[in-house]
Amino acid sequence: MGPSLDLFAAASAEGAWTVSEVTKRAKSVVEAGLPPLWVRGEITGFKAWRSGHWYFSLRDQTAQVRCVMFAKQNFRLPTPTDGMQVFVFARPSMYEEKGEFQLTVMELLSTDQGGLWKLAFEKAKAALTKDGLLDPARKRRLPQFPNRIAVVTSPDGAVLRDIQAVVARRWPVAELIVVPAQVQGAKAEASICSALNRIKRLPVDVLVVARGGGSVEDLWAFNTERVARAVAAMPMPVISAIGHETDVTLCDLVADLRAPTPSAAAEAATPDRAEVLQQCGVFGQRLSRALRIAARHVIERLDRTGDRLTRGMDQRLEKSRALLTAHSARLDALSPLRVLARGYAVARDTDGQVVKRVAQLPSGKEFRLRVTDGEVDARVQ
Amino acid sequence: MPEFSKQLERLEAIVRRLESEDLDLDEALKLFEEGVERLRAAREQLTQAELNVKKVLEIESPS
């Protein structure tokens, strides 16, 4: 038995809390004890104010709670109506002016429009964003001329046929490695991840993950955090084409490129061989042009060398010619003809021997006498 | 068969070298011959290739 509480003894002007104090305290207790959370329920008493703020209650069978969603949070959303089942992401708080417990709603999803899916999607997306996996800076460039292209898709069906046809037409140079996977149903998530894991170990230049259109449920595996993380962890660039153009899956978001259709994914993965052939033609032209230029350089160099050679020869020739002139002048001066011109004569016997002594000329001996302008026959007296 | 991208890279390098440098004729000719050969191989790859499709069967990996 505890002592009974004496209400009147505890009453004092100083000890009583004011309304403001108690609501303020309640607010801080609520905010500290309840972090932002997802709440589901049915909308009732919905009212949109001129300011754009929404006021409504969420209820289930046994309880209800006041909600406010401010204009800056709801401006993108279609207006909900009473009776709608929704998920809200909200911060629990106290509205002090009315002393009411209330949720400040930051996100509102209707379960009628795949809201449950969307909730899971947003959760996974938030986790991926937090880890930086949706950062545009992560996007890798696709290879220009892939040698090996891997495809993860359903093994039979139009998607694989489409991809194969495009690659065969545009870039048959590459090898197409098909890794089949279950793309829908309960096992899809594990099947896709194990296909991705296999490809991780293969020398593949680019990967296409593709699936045809389907309902939100059909595409679901590509919206799971596990598949998205597996795609993000691939060592090679990934092109994703899941569902129709209007469906954007997490797989699309983490991939290096999102293609609107499987065929478009195959096109993005490959160069057009007709264009590459043209490029080869240009290379051929550049090659022969470059060779011509290289040959011309060599010829010009030869010409320059030849010129120098000729110039050298000319100079030597000139020198020789001058020398020759000088020598011939001296030779000329020494010539016996010049001696004859001065009045000397040369006597030669009949054998042509020059007569130098008296003994060679006995009386009656015939000889020839050479003077400057000719020869005469003579005899010794 | 060398990878197509490597083939084209080498071809590009050859053309640039031929275009930019004062090579002696012998070396220029050698480069030219290699370039022509690579060009021929590349063209052949482009025109004669038939798509090779390989299916890798998924082996259930314990997860």
Protein model, in words:
The complex is a heterodimer of chains A (381) and B (63). Chain A is built from 11 helices and 13 strands. Chain A is of the alpha/beta class and 381 residues long. Chain A folds into 4 domains: 14-113, OB fold (Dihydrolipoamide Acetyltransferase, E2P); 136-271, Hypothetical protein af1403, domain 2 (Rossmann fold); 273-321; 337-379, no CATH class. Chain A has a 5-stranded mixed β-barrel with strand order 1-2-3-5-4. In chain A, strands 7-6-8-9-10 form a 5-stranded parallel sheet, sandwiched between helices. Chain A has a 3-stranded antiparallel sheet with strand order 11-12-13, with no helix packed on it. In chain A, strand 2 and strand 3 form a beta hairpin. In chain A, helix 5 packs parallel to helix 9. The longest helix of chain A has 62 residues, at 273-334. Chain A is rod-shaped, with a radius of gyration of 55 Å. Chain B is mainly α and 63 residues long. Chain B has one domain. Chain B is elongated and about 55 Å long. The N and C termini of chain B lie far apart (38 Å). Mean pLDDT of chain B is 80; it is low at 58-63.
